[in-house]
Design goal:
This is ABC transporter substrate-binding protein. It is built from 13 helices and 14 strands. The chain has helices spanning 6-10, 56-64, 89-94, 105-110, 132-137, 163-178, 181-201, 229-237, 255-261, 276-285, 293-296, 305-308, 314-331; strands at 33-37, 40-44, 51-54, 71-75, 97-99, 115-120, 123-124, 142-144, 210-214, 222-224, 240-241, 250-252, 265-270, 300-304. The strands form four sheets. Strands 3, 4, 5, 6, 7 and 8 form a six-stranded parallel sheet that branches. Strand 4, helix 3 (89-94) and strand 5 form a beta-alpha-beta unit. It is globular, with a radius of gyration of 20 Å.
Length: 332
């Protein structure tokens, strides 16, 4: 488990204050709320009281809104980074860890969940039959993470809007559903201000370094297209995502494409059984990459998994990557 500095993560909620309390939810227990989720109108008959979430970013969206009292548990592998320094660590202390794997129907039923908040490839999956439609048949409503919405371009491709818009959409929707609109609006306002501060200092025009996001994979790399969080994390930090033209969120490409686009910097996603250092060593030693600028100049920057999926950690990730890319721009 990697250590995440508390100060860096606190940046993501600095203007509202680490550990800040939220306004009390309004008396809307019996009032239906209709939201637009993945392009569909979805009506929730009541405010959920036993929410179950899948994965770290989704879980922390609930915690950042102060909604741990509305949760019955979460599923999350234990390789997604250290949480002890987080401003919303109290949520992890309070809410039950249901599984170190993905959610299952059994987890959800055992927890007596009245809402499942997950995403496609963040819990929801056709091959295992764990889908919103399957849960609906059990009488359990769902909310789908907007970053993960299927976009119809292929059967599995995801992403329907810019990644930060997806983050703001989910915070706004959750704020409405749980009656904490003011808290959601404050988070969005503060996130936008933090990002604007980084943007103001970012390299401009031809000085913007090109960046390749490396998640995993040796035969074929798994990376980020323009609909996953790294697209705007890179862009707002002052870089250019070399896979911007890929109309998907998380997907595979060929190494020949990476070589042809010659990124100035590689951002490594730190999670899983292969450590960030092992990924770094692979990139630096992989013969086809030897003439890529990022490899020749050993410009490899590491961000945590939770920084790079839709989550309240995204603004902090933008700030840290922005500081690094300014040094890259100055060295070119």
């Amino acid at each position: 488990m990697r250590k995440l500095l508390a100060a860096a993560v606190c940046l993501a909620v600095a203007a509202t204050g680490c550990g800040a309390t939220v306004e009390s939810a309004e008396d809307t227990e019996s009032q239906a709320v209709t939201l637009t989720n993945c392009g569909r109108q979805v009506t929730y008959d009541k405010v959920p009281e036993r929410v179950v979430t899948n994965d770290v970013g989704i879980t922390e969206l609930m915690f950042a809104l102060g909604l741990e009292d509305r949760m019955a548990g979460f599923a999350m592998p234990d390789d997604k980074g250290q949480v002890s320094g987080l401003p919303w660590k109290g949520g992890y202390d309070k809410v039950k860890w249901l599984s170190k794997d993905q959610l299952t129907k059994e987890n959800v039923l055992d927890a007596r969940a009245d809402l499942v908040f997950a995403g496609w490839n963040y819990g929801f999956r056709e091959d295992g039959g764990f889908t919103p439609d399957a849960l609906k048949k059990l009488g359990i409503p769902s909310y789908i993470l907007t970053e993960s919405c299927h976009n119809g371009r292929t059967k599995a491709s995801r992403g329907i809007m810019p990644p930060l818009d997806a983050l703001y959409t989910d915070l706004t929707n959750l704020g409405r559903l749980f009656g904490v609109e003011k808290r959601a609006a404050a988070l969005i306002r503060d996130f936008k201000q933090q990002i604007a501060d980084v943007r103001a200092k970012a390299p401009k025009g031809a000085d913007r370094p090109s960046v390749f996001l490396y998640d995993s994979g040796q035969n074929t790399p798994f990376t980020s297209g323009r609909y996953a969080a790294p697209e705007q994390i890179i862009t707002e930090a002052g870089g250019v995502n070399v896979m911007h033209d890929v109309a998907d969120s998380w997907t595979t490409v060929g190494w020949e494409t990476v070589v042809a686009r010659d990124p100035d910097t590689i951002v490594v996603c730190d999670y899983g059984d292969v450590s960030a250092e092992e990924k770094r060593k692979f990139l630096l030693s992989y013969a086809p990459l030897r003439n890529v600028s990022a490899v020749k100049n050993r410009r490899i920057f590491v961000l945590d998994y939770a920084d790079l999926v839709e989550s309240p950690r995204n603004p902090s990730a933008i700030a840290r990557l922005g500081a690094y890319l300014r040094t890259v721009s100055g060295d070119r």
